[in-house]
Specification:
- It contains two helices and no strands.
- 89% of the residues lie in helices and 0% in strands.
- The protein has two domains: 1-37; 39-89.
- The chain is mainly α.
- The protein has helices spanning 2-33, 42-88.
- It is rod-shaped and about 110 Å long.
- It starts with a helix and ends with a helix.
């Protein structure tokens, strides 16, 4: 009985090893036939995520003077209207 159990275990182990070898061979074939491409690594993803906000900040910095000028003109317009309203009273 023990011999049968041991034989069954050995066969199961051999079957698993054979499946593993076949999977490895298939993976190697796939890797050899796939075209070379840059796959995103965690480092690349981190760099991309870091660069995006910096680029956005640079664009904002370029637009900041225009925005400040707009804010100044709006502020002046509001102040002028307030002066007009209070001067009428």
């Amino acid at each position: 009985m023990r011999l049968r159990e041991e034989e069954a275990r050995r066969k199961e182990e051999q079957r698993r090893e054979e499946i593993f070898r076949k999977q490895r061979a298939a993976e190697e074939i796939i890797l050899e036939t796939e075209p070379e491409e840059v796959k995103p690594t965690p480092q690349l993803v981190i760099i991309e995520e870091t660069v995006k906000p910096v680029q956005a900040a640079a664009e904002t910095k370029k637009e900041a003077p225009k925005t400040i000028e707009k804010q100044k003109t709006i502020k002046e317009q509001v102040l002028n209207k307030l002066k007009d309203v209070y001067s009428e009273e």
